[in-house]
Amino acid sequence: xxxxxxxxxxxxxxxxxxxxxxxxxxxxxxxxxxxxxxxxxxxxxxxxxxxxxxxxxxxxxxxxxxxxxxxxxxxxxxxxxxxxxxxxxxxxxxxxxxxxxxxxxxxxxxxxxxxxxxxxxxxxxxxxxxxxxxxxxxxxxxxxxxxxxxxxxxxxxx
Length: 158
Known about the structure:
Layout: H1 3-26, H2 34-39, H3 46-75, H4 80-101, H5 136-154
Helix pairs in contact: 1-3, 1-5, 4-5
Keywords: Membrane, Transmembrane, Transmembrane helix
Protein name: DUF2938 domain-containing protein
Transmembrane segments: 6-30, 51-74, 80-102, 138-157
């Protein structure tokens, strides 16, 4: 397995993904903010949460990059299209399973059933994270497919 590539390119791909999502948020394409959502698991302060969340997201990205690298090693090949396909599977699971489950474990996120009395800091993402904007699924899918594509190009299979 490409350990050096995993250590370096996992960080590069995750940083690029996070920067692209932040850019899309600032451009008004989505309201999703992974660093904020992750950081508020730890702290209520939104500024500190974004910093902490960025590093938590980098760590999660490294974990996923390890999975991609292991998959490439098992397949004995790493290509852009296999990486993009893995990115598509990755984002499909995130948008349909992981994000909708997040309100059940996040201490500062409202649930889908929260009423007007909720004082939660964050709204729930909902299926496909549509609560963060109609373009959110497309934005999140594109950046994750590119993440996989980049890893498929930069990592070696064996």
